[in-house]
Amino acid sequence: MSLFTALDRQRTVAPAGYSRWLIPPAALAVHLSIGQVYATSVYKNSLVAHFGTGQTAIGVIFSIAIVMLGLSAAVGGTWVERNGPRKAMFVSAVCWCTGFLVAALGIAAGQLWLVYLGYGVIGGIGLGIGYISPVSTLIKWFPDRPGLATGLAIMGFGGGALVASPVSNQLMAFYDPGYDPGTAGSVASGGALVGLFVTLALGYGLLMSIGVLLIRVPPPGWRPAGFDPARQRSAPMITTASVSARNAVRTPQFWLLWLVLFCNVTAGIGILEQASPMIQDFFRGNGAAAVTAVAAGGFVGLLSLFNMAGRFVWSSTSDLIGRKPIYLIYLGVGAILYAVLATAGGLSPWLFVPLACVILSFYGGGFATIPAYLRDLFGTFQVGAIHGRLLTAWSAAGIAGPLIVNAFLDARGEPGTLTQSAYQAPLFTMVGLLVVGFLANLAVRPVAERYHEPVAGAAVPTAAGDAAPEPVAADAPGAAPVAPARGRVWLVVSWAVVGVLLCYAVFRVVLTATQLFAG
């Protein structure tokens, strides 16, 4: 039996007694790993020095990775649905870790194109496949709380950078004693960068293997105890029908949600991409910034923390109030907060920082809630594939957001000389975008029946019991019973691993954020 055959969907059907609470840590193990992509700025200057090139040439590495994320998620979404989460997570882990190793080879050989190929292209494919791989499975295990489930997993993507940033600095200092991450202008040697990339490849390989081992799909017809599908049938914005990925892209609802995600992400990136210089410029007087670079770094960490927390808190809230109302909050309240930030944000850091943090929590919440919104409108049939196609909005926003902000700022003067007034035009542009997204969300209606799959192809839950799903035949692949004691051990160990990583991330952020107000 080949390795790929062992990873097939039919061989990963959950046995009797399998706890659905093992699925979130499996997803978190993958998302905490691939979330490292947002920590590339940590070693960016070291790469610039090593290759003797400019910031733009090194910045292209991140851009390629994000573009490949969107493309691989869109193109590979149907493959992920057909082959199941375990095979998808395995492919993601192989691509992601191979990307680091190829990039390490490029650094050692002084060949920048190998870094583009490794981290950018190969790693970017791992990013896209890994991002969508657990989504459909989580939604099927948690039909009663899809927002909570996807929020837990996608929270890991935001937390991945918070873990990777301090760890990367410590690893570079370990491999190069002359490197001091606390000293401005200090860069790590090429050998330290090679050591960093190889270590990250090995570490993420181990972490992602936890997800590969733990992930399971529920047996056909399974549903959690106490879950009544009739309640969903009575909800106007939640369907029990099925819509294929091919049909979904033909509906106005898909493109309305594409626009909603694009507007929300573009606005969030408007702050995130410019966060450190922005807070310094807002409180600049007589040519000098009242906020130090160290304090600005604390601000960036705080934004990342709210970005991560918003993915869980707001997405879980959507289970209570609905997906459409929560996006009205993200976009409507977000527009108001952006307007206040543009006009009064410079009065005090005690006003500026909370406003920016809430806005970034909406940004993170938008990412985490969109899979549940897609599930409500299109059903669970191919929700992962539909999600993959929708993520092209992220790729577009990743280009549009920085372009909008930087174009306005470049027209107002040189970096280090700007003040609050320079940010008013780009911030009000973001207000306009959020209003467009708000109107698009208002226009969302249930999907017309002509796009539904035939009823015979729809999966209707029939069995009850969370702790004891519908039994799978004893001779079916992957149907061997799980010893309760071993299951409890895995439950504790898996949550402990991801819990320690998340707590470490929060601790590091709080530690640096205290300097924002102390400075």
TrEMBL record:
- Pfam families, sorted: MFS_1
- Topology within the bilayer: Multi-pass membrane protein
Q: What is its main location?
A: membrane
Q: Where is the Major facilitator superfamily (MFS) profile domain?
A: 1-449
Does the record carry Amino-acid biosynthesis as a key word? no
The name of this protein is OFA family MFS transporter
- The reply on keyword Nucleotide-binding is no
Q: Which domain of life is it from?
A: Bacteria
TM regions (residue ranges): 21-43, 55-76, 88-107, 113-135, 147-167, 187-215, 254-272, 292-314, 326-344, 350-374, 386-405, 425-444, 489-511
- Keyword set, alphabetical order: Membrane, Transmembrane, Transmembrane helix
Location(s), subcellular: Cell membrane
InterPro entries given for it?
Answer: MFS, MFS_dom, MFS_trans_sf, Proton-linked_MCT
